[in-house]
Amino acid sequence: MKKDLSNIKKSKYLLDKNQCIGIPTETVYGLAANAYSNQATSKIFFLKNRSKKNPLIVHYFNAKDLERDCKINLDFKKLYKKFCPGPITFVLRLKKESKISKNVTNGKKTLAVRFPNNKLTRKLLSTLKYPLAAPSANISSKLSPVSKQDVFEEFGKKLKFILDGGRSKIGLESTIINLCGKPQVLRLGGIEISKINKILKRKIIYVKKNKKISVPGQNKLHYSPGIPIRLNKKNPKKDEAFILIRKKKISSINYFYLTKNGNLKLAGKNLYKTLRKIKNLKYKSIAVERIPNIGIGQTINDRLKRASIK
Ligand code: TXA
Ligand code: MG
């Protein structure tokens, strides 16, 4: 507890000095910097080797803080009440007086925002005078990190500090919903669309591709362990790692189970961890069993598909 407090103090000290640090969230770890500072946010792009055209998600403590920078609407209020803090990101219109750095938005008039649900990160946000821009803490196109160790594997000593908040509980990125105009889901994530539909009392569509409000990089290789992945396979090839959704009677050294019982939420939580483990064991390729395309299974399949693009 005392250690947590001193780590939060250290995080604040570095962030106030325009440095980047790793922060825990319930989805994946983020690479965070002061969202109001050009100097701080430009470091994020440099460290991640990320295109400046790809805007960042900004993390707030609560809706009151958010209203300094964004216009909110009724749909936002309903979803915020139900899911926040939690794994959902809203795309909203920026206010004219917003202090968000141009690096964050790539000059656009919209901002992606979220309220992460991790105790330490919430405590940290509550002590800062600015929100935190934070993309996932991985080198662009690579696997997202779900622990302090994973972030260290990505950046090594280039990163001054990583706040340790334990394993990410959801283990998959947030669901992104665009609330400028007709609501649309832009990225599948930790909250199922059916749950959003229930709150908004209408069917929200998922737009994979939309030129006007594109999510840059969404169609390129992403979430990749850096080795080929083959999907919907019944068996692995010789020497290939095989990912299965639930434990089976047959087992082998190259079999990796996402869960004991096939629970899809748990499978989602274990996905990136398993992919990283396989990569670190130096397997040359991965086969994955068919994953049911329902609930969080849809998010898992989305990530695996993007990770398997050749
Ligand atoms: O769970 C998460 O969302 C994690 C944690 C760290 O919060 N963050 C995350 O950030 O996944 P990132 O940068 O890896 O993915 C954010 C996605 C990018 O594809 C980006 O293009 C899109 O959000 N995005 C950011 N601002 C946007 C905007 N104004 N309109 C549409 N898409 C936007
Ligand atoms: Mg990412």
Topology:
Blueprint: H1 2-16, E1 21-23, E2 30-34, H2 38-48, E3 57-59, H3 63-66, H4 74-83, E4 88-93, H5 102-105, E5 110-114, H6 119-127, E6 132-133, H7 148-155, E7 175-178, E8 184-187, H8 193-200, E9 205-206, E10 229-230, E11 241-246, E12 255-259, H9 264-280, E13 286-288, H10 296-307
Parallel strand pairs: 3-5, 4-7, 8-9, 10-13, 11-12, 11-13
Antiparallel strand pairs: 1-2, 2-6, 3-6, 4-5, 7-8
Helix pairs in contact: 1-6, 9-10
The protein binds threonylcarbamoyladenylate and magnesium ion (MG).
Threonylcarbamoyladenylate is lined by residues 25, 27-28, 30, 54-57, 89, 91, 108, 110-112, 114, 116, 134-136, 173-174, 176, 186, 213, 215-218.
Concise structural overview:
Helix content is 32%, strand content 16%. It is of the alpha/beta class and 310 residues long.
Question: In words, what does this structure look like?
Answer:
This protein is an alpha/beta fold and 310 residues long. It folds into two domains: 2-206, DHBP synthase; 229-308, Threonylcarbamoyl-AMP synthase, C-terminal domain (Rossmann fold, 3-Layer(aba) Sandwich), CATH 3.40.50.11030. It contains ten helices and 13 strands. The protein has helices at residues 2-16, 38-48, 63-66, 74-83, 102-105, 119-127, 148-155, 193-200, 264-280, 296-307, and strands at 21-23, 30-34, 57-59, 88-93, 110-114, 132-133, 175-178, 184-187, 205-206, 229-230, 241-246, 255-259, 286-288. The strands form two sheets. Strands 1-2-6-3-5-4-7-8-9 form a nine-stranded mixed beta sheet, with helices on both faces. The mean pLDDT is 95. The structure holds threonylcarbamoyladenylate (TXA) and magnesium ion. Threonylcarbamoyladenylate binds at residues 25, 27-28, 30, 54-57, 89, 91, 108, 110-112, 114, 116, 134-136, 173-174, 176, 186, 213, 215-218.
